[in-house]
Amino acid sequence: MNILIVYAHPDPQSLNASLKDYAVRHLQAGGHTVQVSDLYAMEWNAILQADEIPERADHRADILREQEKLRWANTVIFQFPLWWFSMPAIMKGWVERVYTLGFGYGVGEHSDQRWGDRYGEGTLAGKRAMLLVTAGGWESHYSPRGINGAIDELLFPIHHGILFYPGMEVLPPFLLYRTGRMNEALFAEACARLGQRLDTLATTAPIPFRRQNDGDYDIPAMTLKATLAPGAQGFKAHLAQPPSLL
Ligand SMILES: Cc1cc2nc3c(=O)[nH]c(=O)nc-3n(C[C@H](O)[C@H](O)[C@H](O)COP(=O)(O)O)c2cc1C
Asked: Domain 2-207 class?
């Protein structure tokens, strides 16, 4: 497979750098071709420019290179440390600039009957994506009743709004918590767990987000049909199976 790792960490000595190096080695040893977009090393310009907004889209060489990598990839891994409950700003800026009109959004025919190709369809349809995220907090802090909020909910805007929106199937994330207590044994354990996830990228069941154009939503309101998941609201409503069955 062709695998793209979009990677955001400024320090080549970090835990994230070690995990990224492990992932690249492991995937290459498995016969895959890997490209890494190392955003800090590339000095990625994360600031969307005035002449890149849709009406005046003037695609820059750096944007086109990243779009080409996305087209090339069968699977895309987004790796980052959780910073203030989300991705580092440099990666958000990568999304804002690379997902141009006609590439990341505004794809397909748009009418009152069909709201374009998005949420399961679009430029990146047929590809798989996975987040690889490290967090200082404990797993329990991110559990369904944890004080930080449930990790599935914190990651929903990335999973659903950034990965599923332009068409990718979204695999459950690889999460590494409590990074402050890392040592050699725990790192080896994390690599073993990560290796298993990398070995099953092609076969792991994706998160069952509802596809926009499969009939689950009223058009053009784009609300979930009243007969589906009655009572469910918010993020969970967009899962075709309730989380308890996952
Ligand atoms: C700016 C910043 C913001 C952070 N925000 C969070 C956070 O919201 N939740 C959390 O659990 N850890 C947070 N952390 C801790 C990092 O997630 C943790 O240090 C990182 O995952 C460890 O990996 P690294 O050694 O590769 O940086 C934050 C760290 C920094 C520097």
From this structure: alpha beta
